[in-house]
Amino acid sequence: MSVIIKGVQDGSVAAGSKIAPGDKLLSLNGNEIMDVLDYRFYQNNENVIALVEDKNGNVQKYRFKKDEYDELGLLFETYLMDKQHSCKNKCIFCFIDQLPKGLRESLYFKDDDSRLSFLFGNYITLTNITEHEIERIIKMHISPINISVHTTNPELRVKMMKNKNAGKVLQIINRFNEAGIAMNSQLVLCPGYNDGMELEKTLQDLTRLENMKCIAAVPVGLTRYREGLCEITPFDKHSAGRALDIIDKYGDKCVETYGERRVYASDEFYLLSGRKMPDASYYGDFLQLENGVGLWALLQSEAENALDEIGCCTINRKISLATGVAAYGLIRYICDLCEQKNPGLTCNVYAIKNDFFGERITVSGLVTATDIIKQLKDKDLGEELLIPAAMLRKQRDMFLDSITVDDLSEALGVPVNYTENDGYDLIDSILNRRNNNG
What we know:
The chain has helices at residues 36-42, 114-120, 131-140, 154-161, 169-178, 196-207, 237-258, 267-273, 295-310, 328-341, 369-376, 405-412, 423-430, 433-436, and strands at 3-8, 24-28, 31-32, 47-53, 59-65, 74-76, 145-148, 183-189, 212-219, 263-265, 317-324, 345-352, 385-388, 416-419. It is of the alpha/beta class. Helix 7 (237-258) crosses helix 8 (267-273), helix 9 packs across helix 13 (423-430) and helix 11 packs parallel to helix 12.
């Protein structure tokens, strides 16, 4: 195999060569180049020999001398150098299968690409991974790898993921563990499927692995668009509490065995069960924030620290904040602290009920502009509406329902600005210190 070169970066190591757009990169130092991981790994040498096939089919050898970690400077059509690998599973809990029609096309793509696990922290199921990819991860010592495990019961995993290869996951995980590859895992828990005794078995299997660094358990998310999908019962206060008991049990065992708590429940489990959220010290290095583990504690801790550093002042300011139902209590608490320390500040906090996806979806990241407009259009929002950046796509310009931030601002008649998932940024935004601090 080979990859097509789009061009050569000006001023780079390869800039003076005769490599041209449309040429094919065959190998670096005798190693076949198939994608971005091969390229990034094998270019890290002081002396690099590149075999390149030109558009006429002639193979040329190029020798480059550079500092070990300098980039060669070859450019490719896509960052991965080929197409992103899609998921072939039909998981009973897949959120994408529960999306309504009419959203932007990119939201319906199911990613299951081992390269993106390493490069960007994406979670993969290992059901579609090839032996070549497994061996490459071990050879290159690509680490950490983030894995969507869900269960270590082979038959149950096949049933839940509807993929005949799903039961082989533990064998692959064991190979990675023996090779010293660090791993993080995710368990989407579905009542009646992989909770209870099945959860006990999964955590027992995973916590035995020295290199399984962190395990996050999250409750299944169920939208109102599950027509034609299998019936799944949502977690309630009692079942969420039982799951927490099991998760805490194995977390405690990990503290005894490894000196660190490797098993965590997402914040949503604490909210569902009505139990007190742990403080920031409970979460160690916050390895699973992307799975909603410790977000509440970290945001609260950062906001409290920011307010302590700023101290008290008097400002004349009235604003509003929109958030998901799940985070309302925390945002209201932080705003109360701000008002206490800053006389003249008024913060209205609105929990946006998710009519778009259904009331069982309570996280801020799935709130749409449609619901914000419907629920806030007649409210006195003050001089500004703040929203969490999690509501927007990565470009920070558009909601899930393809309405832009500018569209929302026009519909509500008030400036709309976002805050990053950072307590310091949230406090600066509430107190209008962004502009004041330049």
